[in-house]
TrEMBL record:
EC category name: isomerase
Superkingdom of origin: Eukaryota
Gene3D superfamilies per UniProt: Glutaredoxin (3.40.30.10)
A GO term for molecular function: protein disulfide isomerase activity
Disordered, as annotated region: 213-233
Zinc found in the keyword field: no
Catalytic reactions of this protein: Catalyzes the rearrangement of -S-S- bonds in proteins
Residue intervals of the Thioredoxin domain: 3-53
Name of the featured protein: protein disulfide-isomerase
One cellular component term from this protein's GO annotations in UniProt: endoplasmic reticulum lumen
Enzyme Commission code(s) on record: 5.3.4.1
InterPro entries listed in its UniProt record: Thioredox_PDIA6_C, Thioredoxin-like_sf, Thioredoxin_domain
Keyword line: Disulfide bond, Isomerase, Redox-active center
Length: 233
Protein backbone atom coordinates (compact mmCIF):
# COMPACT_ATOMS: atom_id res chain seq x y z
CA UNK A 1 0.00 0.00 0.00
CA UNK A 2 1.48 3.33 -1.07
CA UNK A 3 0.57 6.66 0.50
CA UNK A 4 0.90 10.07 -1.09
CA UNK A 5 0.19 13.64 0.02
CA UNK A 6 -0.58 16.68 -2.11
CA UNK A 7 -0.81 20.36 -1.20
CA UNK A 8 -3.86 21.35 -3.26
CA UNK A 9 -3.17 25.06 -2.80
CA UNK A 10 0.15 24.62 -4.60
CA UNK A 11 -0.83 21.94 -7.14
CA UNK A 12 -4.16 23.43 -8.15
CA UNK A 13 -4.31 21.78 -11.58
CA UNK A 14 -3.90 18.31 -10.05
CA UNK A 15 -6.49 19.11 -7.39
CA UNK A 16 -8.89 20.22 -10.11
CA UNK A 17 -8.27 17.04 -12.12
CA UNK A 18 -9.38 14.92 -9.18
CA UNK A 19 -12.30 17.16 -8.22
CA UNK A 20 -10.90 18.16 -4.84
CA UNK A 21 -13.10 20.89 -3.36
CA UNK A 22 -12.54 20.66 0.38
CA UNK A 23 -9.73 19.88 2.76
CA UNK A 24 -8.67 17.40 3.87
CA UNK A 25 -9.71 15.05 1.06
CA UNK A 26 -8.65 11.40 0.90
CA UNK A 27 -8.96 9.35 -2.27
CA UNK A 28 -8.24 5.68 -2.82
CA UNK A 29 -6.87 4.25 -6.06
CA UNK A 30 -7.34 0.50 -6.43
CA UNK A 31 -4.56 -1.49 -8.12
CA UNK A 32 -4.73 -1.01 -11.89
CA UNK A 33 -7.30 1.79 -11.69
CA UNK A 34 -7.20 5.04 -13.65
CA UNK A 35 -7.56 8.63 -12.43
CA UNK A 36 -11.29 8.55 -13.06
CA UNK A 37 -11.71 5.47 -10.84
CA UNK A 38 -10.58 7.20 -7.64
CA UNK A 39 -12.78 6.35 -4.66
CA UNK A 40 -13.60 9.03 -2.09
CA UNK A 41 -12.97 8.18 1.55
CA UNK A 42 -15.97 9.16 3.66
CA UNK A 43 -15.01 7.59 6.97
CA UNK A 44 -13.81 9.05 10.25
CA UNK A 45 -10.90 11.46 10.38
CA UNK A 46 -8.90 10.00 13.23
CA UNK A 47 -5.67 8.15 12.48
CA UNK A 48 -7.25 4.92 13.75
CA UNK A 49 -10.19 5.30 11.33
CA UNK A 50 -7.90 5.90 8.37
CA UNK A 51 -5.56 3.02 9.25
CA UNK A 52 -8.54 0.67 9.63
CA UNK A 53 -9.83 1.72 6.21
CA UNK A 54 -6.40 1.25 4.63
CA UNK A 55 -5.94 -2.22 6.13
CA UNK A 56 -9.39 -3.24 4.92
CA UNK A 57 -8.42 -2.17 1.39
CA UNK A 58 -5.19 -4.15 1.61
CA UNK A 59 -7.11 -7.26 2.65
CA UNK A 60 -9.69 -6.66 -0.08
CA UNK A 61 -7.05 -6.61 -2.81
CA UNK A 62 -4.72 -9.30 -1.53
CA UNK A 63 -4.69 -12.60 -3.45
CA UNK A 64 -6.66 -15.51 -2.05
CA UNK A 65 -4.61 -18.09 -0.13
CA UNK A 66 -3.60 -21.10 -2.18
CA UNK A 67 -5.38 -24.39 -1.54
CA UNK A 68 -2.37 -26.68 -1.20
CA UNK A 69 -2.18 -30.45 -1.52
CA UNK A 70 -0.71 -32.03 1.62
CA UNK A 71 2.40 -33.62 0.12
CA UNK A 72 4.83 -33.53 3.04
CA UNK A 73 5.31 -32.37 6.61
CA UNK A 74 7.13 -29.22 5.48
CA UNK A 75 4.36 -28.29 3.03
CA UNK A 76 1.67 -28.63 5.69
CA UNK A 77 3.73 -26.84 8.35
CA UNK A 78 4.30 -23.88 6.01
CA UNK A 79 0.61 -23.72 5.14
CA UNK A 80 -0.82 -24.14 8.63
CA UNK A 81 1.37 -23.78 11.68
CA UNK A 82 1.55 -19.98 11.81
CA UNK A 83 -2.09 -19.45 10.86
CA UNK A 84 -4.97 -18.82 13.24
CA UNK A 85 -6.88 -21.67 11.59
CA UNK A 86 -6.01 -24.30 9.04
CA UNK A 87 -8.85 -25.59 6.87
CA UNK A 88 -8.28 -29.26 6.04
CA UNK A 89 -10.27 -31.01 3.31
CA UNK A 90 -10.13 -34.74 2.61
CA UNK A 91 -11.52 -35.51 -0.84
CA UNK A 92 -12.71 -38.91 -2.09
CA UNK A 93 -10.22 -41.32 -3.63
CA UNK A 94 -9.67 -40.62 -7.33
CA UNK A 95 -11.33 -43.93 -8.26
CA UNK A 96 -14.47 -42.83 -6.40
CA UNK A 97 -14.41 -39.27 -7.75
CA UNK A 98 -12.61 -38.79 -11.07
CA UNK A 99 -10.83 -35.63 -12.26
CA UNK A 100 -13.95 -33.57 -13.06
CA UNK A 101 -15.52 -34.46 -9.73
CA UNK A 102 -12.30 -33.62 -7.88
CA UNK A 103 -11.81 -30.34 -9.73
CA UNK A 104 -15.38 -29.36 -8.84
CA UNK A 105 -14.58 -29.90 -5.16
CA UNK A 106 -11.31 -27.97 -5.50
CA UNK A 107 -13.18 -25.07 -7.09
CA UNK A 108 -15.53 -24.94 -4.10
CA UNK A 109 -12.48 -24.83 -1.81
CA UNK A 110 -10.78 -22.10 -3.85
CA UNK A 111 -13.95 -20.01 -3.96
CA UNK A 112 -14.27 -20.36 -0.19
CA UNK A 113 -10.63 -19.37 0.30
CA UNK A 114 -11.28 -16.27 -1.81
CA UNK A 115 -14.38 -15.37 0.18
CA UNK A 116 -12.59 -15.67 3.53
CA UNK A 117 -9.16 -14.43 2.45
CA UNK A 118 -9.28 -11.56 4.95
CA UNK A 119 -9.08 -14.16 7.72
CA UNK A 120 -5.66 -15.28 6.39
CA UNK A 121 -6.29 -18.95 7.17
CA UNK A 122 -4.27 -21.83 5.78
CA UNK A 123 -5.89 -24.25 3.33
CA UNK A 124 -4.79 -27.82 2.56
CA UNK A 125 -6.38 -30.85 0.93
CA UNK A 126 -5.55 -34.51 0.53
CA UNK A 127 -7.03 -37.64 -0.96
CA UNK A 128 -8.76 -40.17 1.27
CA UNK A 129 -6.25 -42.72 2.51
CA UNK A 130 -3.12 -40.75 1.61
CA UNK A 131 -2.62 -39.16 5.03
CA UNK A 132 -4.04 -41.73 7.48
CA UNK A 133 -2.70 -40.08 10.63
CA UNK A 134 -4.24 -36.76 9.64
CA UNK A 135 -7.62 -38.41 9.12
CA UNK A 136 -7.31 -40.37 12.35
CA UNK A 137 -6.55 -37.21 14.33
CA UNK A 138 -9.85 -35.72 13.15
CA UNK A 139 -11.76 -38.99 13.49
CA UNK A 140 -12.50 -39.04 9.76
CA UNK A 141 -11.05 -42.38 8.79
CA UNK A 142 -12.65 -44.75 6.36
CA UNK A 143 -15.91 -43.12 5.31
CA UNK A 144 -17.85 -39.90 4.80
CA UNK A 145 -15.80 -38.23 2.07
CA UNK A 146 -15.46 -35.44 1.24
CA UNK A 147 -14.84 -34.16 4.76
CA UNK A 148 -13.58 -30.91 6.25
CA UNK A 149 -12.08 -29.81 9.55
CA UNK A 150 -10.76 -26.51 10.85
CA UNK A 151 -7.71 -26.81 13.10
CA UNK A 152 -6.35 -24.31 15.59
CA UNK A 153 -2.76 -25.58 15.76
CA UNK A 154 -1.90 -23.37 18.73
CA UNK A 155 -4.70 -24.68 20.94
CA UNK A 156 -4.72 -28.11 19.27
CA UNK A 157 -8.49 -28.01 18.90
CA UNK A 158 -10.59 -28.57 15.81
CA UNK A 159 -14.12 -28.26 14.49
CA UNK A 160 -15.74 -30.57 11.94
CA UNK A 161 -17.99 -29.61 9.06
CA UNK A 162 -21.38 -31.14 9.86
CA UNK A 163 -23.30 -29.78 6.88
CA UNK A 164 -22.97 -30.47 3.18
CA UNK A 165 -19.62 -30.20 1.41
CA UNK A 166 -20.80 -27.48 -0.94
CA UNK A 167 -20.67 -23.71 -1.22
CA UNK A 168 -23.59 -23.16 1.17
CA UNK A 169 -22.61 -25.73 3.79
CA UNK A 170 -18.96 -24.65 3.85
CA UNK A 171 -19.90 -20.96 4.00
CA UNK A 172 -22.11 -21.55 7.05
CA UNK A 173 -19.34 -23.55 8.71
CA UNK A 174 -16.66 -20.93 8.05
CA UNK A 175 -18.94 -18.04 8.93
CA UNK A 176 -19.57 -19.54 12.37
CA UNK A 177 -15.83 -20.05 12.83
CA UNK A 178 -15.12 -16.43 11.90
CA UNK A 179 -17.56 -15.38 14.66
CA UNK A 180 -15.95 -17.72 17.18
CA UNK A 181 -18.88 -20.13 17.14
CA UNK A 182 -19.05 -23.86 16.54
CA UNK A 183 -18.29 -26.97 18.57
CA UNK A 184 -14.64 -27.88 19.01
CA UNK A 185 -12.85 -31.00 20.18
CA UNK A 186 -9.26 -31.59 21.33
CA UNK A 187 -6.81 -32.99 18.80
CA UNK A 188 -6.00 -36.63 19.44
CA UNK A 189 -2.61 -36.81 21.10
CA UNK A 190 -2.62 -33.02 21.54
CA UNK A 191 -0.09 -32.67 18.74
CA UNK A 192 -0.04 -32.06 15.02
CA UNK A 193 -0.37 -35.39 13.20
CA UNK A 194 2.53 -36.78 11.21
CA UNK A 195 2.28 -36.03 7.49
CA UNK A 196 3.63 -38.57 5.03
CA UNK A 197 5.60 -37.59 1.93
CA UNK A 198 3.44 -38.52 -1.06
CA UNK A 199 3.26 -37.85 -4.79
CA UNK A 200 1.16 -34.98 -6.07
CA UNK A 201 -2.03 -35.66 -7.99
CA UNK A 202 -1.27 -35.57 -11.73
CA UNK A 203 -4.63 -34.03 -12.58
CA UNK A 204 -5.80 -37.13 -14.45
CA UNK A 205 -8.55 -39.68 -13.95
CA UNK A 206 -7.71 -42.70 -11.86
CA UNK A 207 -7.22 -46.10 -13.44
CA UNK A 208 -7.81 -49.47 -11.89
CA UNK A 209 -4.67 -51.55 -11.63
CA UNK A 210 -5.31 -54.70 -13.63
CA UNK A 211 -3.28 -57.68 -12.54
CA UNK A 212 -1.60 -59.42 -15.44
CA UNK A 213 -2.73 -62.98 -15.97
CA UNK A 214 0.03 -65.55 -15.82
CA UNK A 215 0.17 -67.96 -18.76
CA UNK A 216 1.03 -71.40 -17.43
CA UNK A 217 0.42 -73.27 -20.67
CA UNK A 218 4.12 -73.78 -21.31
CA UNK A 219 4.97 -74.90 -17.80
CA UNK A 220 5.86 -78.60 -17.51
CA UNK A 221 4.08 -80.25 -14.69
CA UNK A 222 5.32 -83.62 -13.51
CA UNK A 223 2.70 -86.28 -13.62
CA UNK A 224 1.82 -87.58 -10.25
CA UNK A 225 3.18 -91.00 -9.63
CA UNK A 226 0.48 -93.56 -9.67
CA UNK A 227 0.36 -95.64 -6.52
CA UNK A 228 1.85 -99.07 -7.03
CA UNK A 229 -0.54 -101.97 -6.88
CA UNK A 230 -0.12 -104.16 -3.86
CA UNK A 231 0.94 -107.74 -4.55
CA UNK A 232 -0.61 -110.31 -2.32
CA UNK A 233 1.66 -113.04 -1.02
Amino acid sequence: LQLGALDATVHQSTASRFGIQGFPTIKYFAPGSSDSDAEDYNGGRTSADIVEYALAKVAENMPAPEVIEALSQDVVDDACKEKQLCIVAVLPHILDCQSKCRNDYLKVLKDSAEKYKKSAWGWIWTEAGKQPQLEEAFGMGGFGYPAMAALNSRKMKFAMLKGSFGATGINEFLRDLSYGKGQTAPMRGAEFPKILTVDAWDGKDGEMVVEEEIDVSDVDLDEEEKPKEKTEL
